[in-house]
Amino acid sequence: xxxxxxGDGTPSPVQPSPVxxxxxxxxxxxxxAPALQPTFSSINTQVLQVWCIGCHSGVGRPPDGxxxxxxxxxxxxxxxxxxxxxxxxxxxxxxxxSGSYLIQKLEGRSDIIGDxxxxxxxxxxxxxxxxxxxxxxxxxxxx
Length: 143
Ligand code: HEC
Description:
143 residues; mainly alpha; 4 helices; 0% strand; binds heme C
């Protein structure tokens, strides 16, 4: 008998097991994060830990700009926290996106100290910056 012969002719395809896919690998050019939500957890996972952590991790090194964006530290380092590079500025001012130094750095405003973020890289998509603005407008909750 031939191997695989006979049967009822119905193919039985092997399905990949439905395991969670790994975190996406960042590509060199920022594109809008899929379904970025105006919540801190979404921004943290889809923006900070993708585009910023390479320079702003405090693990085993001092974070660039004195800003530590490790997942469990990022909220406290941003909301109501004084800028290290421009001490008169506050990184995230709840309900005031335009007054938040984080937004000013992401949008490359002329009165920032240093460079537009991500440093030396492609700016974030404006649609993503707008989602971060919306989160700040809602009071920058730790949600
Ligand atoms: C290639 C390295 C690099 C990447 C990537 C990067 N940064 Fe920075 N960041 C720096 C350096 C260096 C400084 C300090 C010099 C400056 O402000 O230009 C800085 C400063 C900052 C500051 C000012 C901190 C303060 O207290 O004054 C903010 C805010 C900031 N970065 C946010 C971000 C965000 C958000 C991202 C991701 C979207 C990001 N950075 C990605 C290197 C980086």
